[in-house]
Amino acid sequence: MKRIIERYIRENIIIFSISIIATLLIINIVLMFQNKETIVENNTTRADADTMIKDVEKFITFLNNIDLGVRAYGLSKNKEMLVPTTNAINYLWPHFESIEQRLIKEGYDVSGLKELQETYQGYVDFNTKMLGMADLDSTEVFRKMMMEDRGMIVWTKTHEIGGKIIEFEKAKSLAAEESYQAAVRNNLYLQFFLLVIGLPTLVFVVIKIKTDNSSRQKLLNELEENNRKYVFNPGTEIHFNNHQELVENSIRNLQHASEFIEHIADGNYSTEWASLNEENKAINETSLAGRLTKMRDQLRQLKREEEMRLWSNEGLTKISETVRNNQDNLKVLADEVVRFLTKYMGALQGGLFVLKSDDEQGEHLELAACHAYDRKKFLERKINIGVGLVGQTFLEGETTMLTKLPQGYTYITSGMGEATASCVLIVPMKYNDKIEAIIEIAGLEKFEKHQILFMEKAGEFVASALQSARTTERMKQLLASSQQQAEEMRATEEELRQNMEELIATQEAMARKQAEASHVHLVARV
Predict the structure, then answer these.
(1) Helix, strand, coil share of the chain (percent; to 5)
(2) Could you report the per-residue pLDDT of 15-27, keeping only the tens digit for each?
(3) Three-class DSSP category at 358
(4) Is a pLDDT exceeding 60 seen at residue 377?
């Protein structure tokens, strides 16, 4: 009987093994579903906790955007600067409501959150008043309100209340993590047991593996070829026998593509595709790596152009304001224009030569203001038309930029010594094709094209103001001359009137004398 049982087992060992493995698989599947629910629930809890933590931390971002937009608007009066503030306020209240609903669902006391919401409401109202002061040009009031630093109170309150919420969420996440690890361990134990029992069946799998190896190799070869053709080709030799390398190449390229796209989406246009270099750049022109790199370059160029446009517009707004505020005083206007343009251009020296005209020298250029210049450079404050770089630029009417300067042309002095300027920009300031002044700035770096265009455009504002100032000055001179002539005419009229009165008095006296003489003669005859 014993032999019969042993023979039966030997003959049906495969069936027994498969039956045991099948039974274990069924048990494994049941437990996997149970553990899956636990894992999914715990993952959801952890994900919700992480989301809640990130959402609470967003309050600081909203606070910074509100503060940044209000300060920028107060300084520039540019409505576009309020975009961060407007967006932050629009998203703030729905954000509070969303967090409150989730915390209530989690059984958390939301009284602290409501207190934080009231704090933000007060801060928003305060910033609204600040914007009102800025619109009324109450700069001093705006500055005093800004110095109160109400944002620090909100920031402290956010960290206090938000920190409690974050600690609550972290505790939930930790409990979920422990439950998740327990479920994972149970799965590992079961899988290990299943592996031990199922190991004998691997003998039967070997044959199948050998059969499928050829098909797998062909598939991997096609995968690598398509990977190099459509995603990225490193230009190296393909090792078709190394299956792991082929799979890792495909995964690695997809990871690079994902990271590259993510960086571009975040605005990081300096990101590089790993392993893409000058040697394999040509063979990747039509691959995903090449096309993404080309797209990055285009986006980077667009961003650069937008930054230059914003820089130029902001500068033109400020120079326009400077001109408008000082156009009644040519001296102050010249000083402010040179100071602003020199600093805004990142230069270290600047000088403004204004067109003058007199009977002795005729038309010439005269230094009206300078900023941080070595005094030796302008011992002679007058420059004749066509003389030197400044005079020649006036004569030609075109912008001049020099990157190779004559020896000793100008020096830049700092606490570390003296250095020769490496670039000088000379721009004619003209309005309606009439040059009113020449500005010369010098720096240690070459000026870019958008900076030169900005200087030429800014020159139109300054030239217009100079023309207006000259017209106003001539009108004042004409008015003063007219008033002087009127005074002289009144004095002449008064003198004539007095002479006429004296003449009439003389005639009357002579008439009286003649009458008296006639009377005496008549008496004598009688």
Answers:
(1) 75, 10, 15
(2) 656 666 667 667 7
(3) strand
(4) no
Q: What is the mean pLDDT of residues 83-112?
A: 82
Which residues, other chains included, contact 31 with Cβ-Cβ below 8 Å and sequence gap of 6+?
Answer: 186, 187, 190
> Is residue 464 classed as helix, strand or coil in its secondary structure?
helix
Report the range of poorest mean pLDDT among 78-82, 156-160, 312-316, 515-519: 515-519
Q: Which helix (H) or strand (E) holds 448?
A: none
Q: What is the DSSP letter of 405?
A: P
Q: Where are the beta strands (DSSP E) in 313-445?
A: 349-358, 362-371, 382-384, 400-402, 411-414, 417-420, 423-431, 434-443
What tokens does 145 get? 């309100």
Chain centroid to CA 481: 54
Residue scoring higher pLDDT (41 or 98): 98
Contact 317, 310 (CB under 8 A): no
Count of alpha carbons within 13 angstroms of residue 499, beta-carbon side: 6
Query: What is the Cα–Cα distance from 435 to 455, expressed in whole angstroms?
Result: 14
Whether the Cβ atoms of residue 162 and residue 56 lie closer than 8 Å to each other: yes
Instruction: Tell which residue, 366, 387, 339, has the closest CA to residue 436.
Output: 366
Q: How many residues belong to the chain?
A: 526
Which position has the token pair 């010369």?
440
Specify whether the CB–CB gap between 172 and 41 falls below 8 A.
Answer: no
Q: Domain extents for the chain?
A: 2-207, 232-326, 329-476
Cβ pair 293, 276 in contact under 8 A: yes
Helix axes 83-105, 13-76, angle to 10 degrees: 140
69 burial level (CB within 10 Å; 0-12, 13-18, 19+): buried
CB-based contact 21:194 (threshold 8 Å): yes
Amino acid sitting at position 196:
V
Distance CA 461, CA 425 (A): 18
Average pLDDT of the residues in 269-283: 76
Residue 480's SS3 state is: helix
| Best CA proximity match to 271, nearest among 253, 288, 281, 257 | 257
User: 103 CB contacts (<8 Å, ≥6 apart)?
Assistant: 52, 110, 113, 165
Burial of 88-100, coded b for 16+ CB within 10 Å and e otherwise, reads bbeebeebbeebe
**Three-state secondary structure call for residue 25:** helix
Report if pTM > 0.85: no
Q: How far apart are CA 408 and CA 187, in angstroms?
A: 81
End-to-end CA distance of the chain: 209
| CATH T-level topology, domain 329-476 | Beta-Lactamase (3.30.450)
